[in-house]
Each structure stands twice: as structure tokens, then as C-alpha cells.
Design goal:
Elements lengths: L1 H25 L9 H4 L2 E2 H12 L2 H32 L12 H12 L1 H35 L2 H19 L2 E3 L2 E2 L1 E2 L1 H28 L19 E7 L5 H4 L1 H20 L3 E8 L7 H10 L6 H8 L6 H7 L3 E5 L17 E3 L18 H11 L8 E7 L25 H4 L13 H25 L5 E7 L5 H4 L6 E8 L2 H5 L7 E2 L9 E3 L3 H8 L3
Length: about 550
């Protein structure tokens, strides 16, 4: 009895080892694909690896198996990282450039969740990075030893290979769209190699595209003549995507804010026109959207961004600077050195520290949007001979949408200390980890509503024909809010109390008011620079 029990334990251990290897080979790189169907398959790579080891002399079999196990571990960890990136940014991890995002991710975790929760997540990630290689190394080495002791394994490998080939020829699928004859890991490796190779080639073409810019030669006296004497604000609302208007639940909260805002502004003689732009990104990476709009080039990954900011590409902010505006970068989310700011040709940059906020932090977005706008009012009150143009990202609606400040009377804001009592009532950072998706979506809607109301109130307060506001989203929120395949459209609105400013964009066909109609025009975000400069140059 004891012998049979021991044999049973050995077989169970062998089966677990096999399941670990098969699961690693079949693991998808997207959470939305992780269901029973993705694992109801036979991995080609399992048979190829077994055949390779069978053909090798027994003396080198174990070292080769160890190497294969470590390669599979690296691929598995990459799939897990890709799944996280798809869930948050709707794109895969860039093996070359995304390592630099680690610092920003840590800052987001610590400021949004608190240090204890961030450390817990980091520890869990470390366990995965270390645990996956150990588990696969033990599993592969155990299966390799079977090749030396069980001749029946050879028969099993040949039979599995024959079954895989038959299923591949017949195109058998148990759970669509996953074929039984899987080669997902091989395809993943091939795609990663192609992505790296194509990235290098694409960079050469992109450098040529940067240089080919006829707009850059426009004389200063022909730039933005239709906006002379206006104070111009280019305001990005973080995570303000099309889902905020069209999702049944979220839109029910945001549409009334925009509609009532349209009415409020109209009472002050202010009108608006709205459409959609297609952002190059989703879920995060706001700086890529900012660069896209300002440069007139699609900046959809870090490689392009680094190439762009190292160039002398003519930007929308540079156009204002050349035409005589005092250009400002008001950046409440910048908390450390930002050398790329020089690329945009700002006369002055006000980062988080320079805004002199003395109140409490509200999650990652430390400075409330209303306070940023109040400081903006002071920073842009220059002389009419050299009006101000400011680029301003509003960041209260940045993920994880957990702590939203109240709307306060403008005269009460002071240095921000007034927010002290309201911060006491905000949710504890660690509690964010327990929020369900419904709560996350509700918090997202609440934060977008706050950002929009702050900007609408500010614009109404500053009513007059000398203010022009371009309000737009930078990207859609993460798939946790939008669901999969939500697209990348973001609303954009031009607001002004001067009818002549809006008449210049009548040909755009945009909707009246702060809310674009469902059938409003949709343009690539990179097309806005040229369209805007053309509209206000006539």
C-alpha cells in the first residue's frame, strides 16, 4: 500500500509539473483573453521542446532544459507585464523603452494607495518575478528526468505531436477563437522581435517626418492673427474620454454638467463649439497626447516622444511664442525635473512646487484643479500688449479617482489651506484596493465632473471677449472604466465670448455647446495643430 501511495505522489507531482509548463505556454498576454478557452489547447512548443531534448545526449539534456525553462520564464513574466499594460494603458509593454516608467508607476502607487499598500504590491510583483522562474525551472527539470526513465514518454510526445498536427490541419476549435493546435508562445516571441525591429526602422522614417514641416516657415506676422489680443488657455482634462459622454451610467452624470455649463456660459455671453479628436493613447501616458496635439505628429509611444523632444519641431506653443504671446506651462503634475519642457518653448514653467499650494494632497493629483485655475488667473494677467498663452493639464481626474475635493468659493481658496478639513473625510488610500469596478466607474465620473465644473466656473468668472479656452481630454481612461475595445476618442471644445473667434471654425462642423453630438466630426489629434493655425491665420 505504501509503495502505491508513493507512486501516486510521484505521478501527481509529474502531472503538476506538466500543468505548470502547459499553463505558461498557453497563458495569454491580455486579461480579457484569460478564460477556459485559452487553455483548452495543445501547445506546439511543448512537443518541440520535448523532441529537442530527446535528440540530445543525456549529458547535456539537463543544462539545455534549464536554459529553456529560464527562457519560458522570461516569456511568461513578459506576458504578465503585457496583461497589466493592456489593462491600464491598452497597449503591450515596450521591451526597449518602458523600463523608464517604473519610477512614475511607483510614484503613482505611493501617492494614490499609500506606502504600505504600494509596498505590498511591489512585494507581490517581486514574488511573481522570482516565483515564475523557480516554478518553471523545477517543473521543466522534473519533466526532463522523465525522458531518461520512461520510454513511454517518447510515445506520448509523438502521439501529442500527431494530435496537434491533425487539429491544426482540421482547424479544430473547442472554444472560439482559440484553436486546439496552439502556437501562441512562438507567435508572441516572433511579434516581440518584429516590434523591436520595426521600431528601429520606424524611427528613421519618423525623423524624416519631423523635418518635413512647411508650417514652421510661417512668418511671425502671419501666425494666429485671428487671436491677437486674446488670452488663450489650452486645457487638458486628464482621462476625459468619449466614454464620459456615451457610457449610459457615466454619461448620465457628465452630460448634465456640460449642458448646464453651456447654459451658464451663455448667460455670460460665452459660446462653445465641440467635436472629437482621436488620441494616440488610452489609459495613461498623457505626455504623449500633449506632444501629439502640440507637434502635429502622432506620438503613440516613448521612442517617438524622445526623438521628438530632441528635435526642433515647430509646436503650437512655439507658434504663440513667435507671434508675441507670453507662453506658460502650468504643470501641477510635474514634481521633479522636466527637461523636456524646453522643447515647447515656454517663457515660464510652473510646476507643482511653483504653484505654492499649501493644502493637503488629494491622492496622486496633489493639487485640486480649482486651485490650479485660481493660480492660473494670477499667472496670466499680463499686459494686453503681450497676452498670455498657457498650456494647463488638470489632474484631479487622474487615476485612481479616489479623492475628489469640493468646489469652493473662489475667494476662499487662498493658499489651499482651506482644503484641510475636507481632506479629513476622504477615503483612506488602502481602501482603494477593495473597490469594485462599479465603484471605480462612479469615482471616475465624480472626478471628471469636478474637473469640468471647475473649468466651467472659472470661464464664467472670467467672462469677456478677451479669453479663449480650448478644453479637451488627453486620453480615454483605463479599460477598467471603458471596458475593452472602447476606442481612443476624446472630446474637444473651443470656448470664447467673441463670436468672431468661433466664426473662424464654422467650417469645422463642430456641435454648438460644451457637449459634442454623437455624430460630431472626429479628427486625428495630430491634425489639430495645422487646422488651428490655418483657421486663425486668415
Amino acid at each position: 500500500m505504501s509503495v502505491s501511495r508513493a507512486a501516486w505522489k510521484v505521478r501527481l507531482a509529474d502531472a503538476i509539473a506538466l500543468l505548470i509548463v502547459v499553463a505558461a505556454l498557453l497563458l495569454p498576454d491580455r486579461l480579457t483573453s484569460t478564460d477556459f478557452g485559452s487553455f483548452a489547447a495543445i501547445p506546439l512548443e511543448l512537443m518541440l521542446g520535448a523532441m529537442l531534448l530527446l535528440l540530445l545526449p543525456s549529458t547535456v539534456r539537463l543544462p539545455v532544459a534549464t536554459t529553456l525553462a529560464l527562457l519560458l520564464a522570461a516569456l511568461t513574466v513578459l506576458k504578465i507585464i503585457d496583461a497589466c499594460f493592456y489593462a491600464s494603458l491598452s497597449r503591450p509593454f515596450d521591451l526597449v523603452l518602458d523600463w523608464g516608467l517604473a519610477g512614475g508607476a511607483w510614484a503613482l502607487l505611493t501617492s494614490s494607495l499609500g506606502l504600505p499598500a504600494a509596498l505590498l504590491i511591489a512585494f507581490a510583483a517581486l514574488l511573481v518575478v522570482l516565483g515564475v522562474p523557480v516554478a518553471l525551472l523545477l517543473a521543466v527539470r522534473r519533466l526532463t528526468r522523465l525522458l531518461d526513465t520512461h520510454t513511454s514518454v517518447v510515445v506520448a510526445v509523438v502521439a501529442a505531436a500527431a494530435l496537434w498536427l491533425a487539429c491544426w490541419v482540421a482547424g479544430i476549435v473547442i472554444a472560439a477563437p482559440y484553436p486546439v493546435a496552439s502556437h501562441a508562445s512562438t507567435t508572441k516571441v516572433i511579434n516581440e522581435v518584429k516590434r523591436i525591429r520595426d521600431g528601429r526602422q520606424e524611427q528613421q522614417a519618423f525623423a524624416t517626418q519631423i523635418a518635413a514641416d512647411q508650417v514652421a516657415a510661417t512668418p511671425a506676422d502671419q501666425l494666429l492673427t485671428g487671436l491677437r489680443g486674446k488670452r488663450v488657455l489650452l486645457v487638458f482634462v486628464e482621462s476625459y474620454g468619449r466614454v464620459a459622454l456615451e457610457d449610459p451610467t457615466i454619461g448620465a452624470q457628465i452630460r448634465p454638467v456640460l449642458d448646464s455649463g453651456t447654459t451658464e456660459l451663455a448667460a455670460h455671453g460665452i459660446q462653445a463649439r465641440s467635436g472629437y479628436l482621436t488620441s494616440p493613447i488610452a489609459g495613461g501616458g498623457s505626455w504623449l497626447a500633449h506632444a501629439t496635439l502640440l507637434s502635429g505628429l502622432r506620438i503613440d509611444h516613448q521612442r517617438r516622444y524622445l526623438t521628438l523632444v530632441a528635435s526642433d519641431r515647430f509646436t503650437l506653443t512655439e507658434a504663440f511664442h513667435r507671434a508675441g504671446w507670453h507662453t506658460l506651462g502650468v504643470m501641477p503634475g510635474v514634481t521633479r525635473a522636466w527637461p523636456e519642457g524646453a522643447f515647447y518653448d515656454y517663457d515660464e514653467i510652473y510646476d507643482s512646487a511653483a504653484l505654492d499650494y499649501a493644502g493637503p494632497a488629494f491622492g496622486w493629483s496633489r493639487i485640486p484643479d480649482q486651485f490650479t485655475l485660481a493660480r492660473l488667473d494670477q499667472l496670466t494677467s499680463g499686459s494686453p500688449q503681450r497676452p498670455a498663452m498657457a498650456m494647463v493639464p488638470l489632474i484631479t481626474s487622474h487615476a485612481p479617482w479616489s479623492a475628489v475635493p469640493p468646489i469652493l468659493p473662489w475667494d476662499d481658496l487662498g493658499d489651499g489651506s482651506v482644503y484641510g478639513s475636507s481632506a479629513d473625510d476622504t477615503e483612506q488610500p488602502e481602501a482603494i484596493l477593495a473597490r469594485d469596478p462599479t465603484r471605480v466607474r462612479a469615482d471616475y465620473a465624480r472626478s471628471i465632473s469636478y474637473s469640468l465644473q471647475s473649468l466651467i466656473s472659472y470661464t464664467a468668472k472670467e467672462s469677456g471677449d478677451d479669453l479663449v479656452v480650448v478644453m479637451l481630454g488627453d486620453h480615454q481612461p483605463a479599460p477598467a472604466v471603458t471596458g475593452p475595445d472602447a476606442g481612443k476618442d476624446v472630446p474637444i471644445t473651443v470656448i470664447s465670448g467673441d463670436p468672431a473667434v468661433l466664426q473662424r471654425i464654422d467650417s469645422w462642423g463642430w456641435s454648438s455647446g460644451l457637449r459634442p453630438a454623437p455624430d460630431a466630426p472626429v479628427w486625428p489629434m495630430e491634425s489639430f495643430r495645422n487646422r488651428f493655425l490655418a483657421a486663425y491665420a486668415r
